[in-house]
Amino acid sequence: MTRLREGGCLCRAIRYQVNGDPIIGGACYCRDCQHISGGAPAHGLMFPADALIVIEGMLSTFCLDVASGNTVYRQFCPTCGVHLFSWNSQAPELRSIKVGTFDDPSDYQSQGSLWVRSAQPWHRPDPDLPQHPTMPCLTELGG
Ligand SMILES: [Zn+2]
Ligand SMILES: [Zn+2]
Asked: 85 CA distance to ligand 1 centroid (A)?
């Protein structure tokens, strides 16, 4: 059975639907995500890009060239500033959706921690989950 999830930003200008099961989910401890979250890691669920439909609102996109030479695209609500989606130019067919933007994020389970070399001493990665110093490839994640 196909699962349909809905979510959106804080001001409700942006609303989206995503169909099916996530490929993988986890917490990213990179400095960029710390800037966006306010300090904590960013929890994201990865879906195929074509599973995601924005049903209301217009997103703004911020592009940042990262050390790997790739570009990271981040989409956010221009009114309330909440970040919802991101992807890397290396894998444009995927979308990471910020778990906190789902209407019901309660059944999310992290499968690992990324970029733990940037984790802060006051926000340690879960010791019971796999920890990756940077961004592993999907096969390494088991996704
Ligand atoms: Zn908004
Ligand atoms: Zn990150």
From this structure: 13
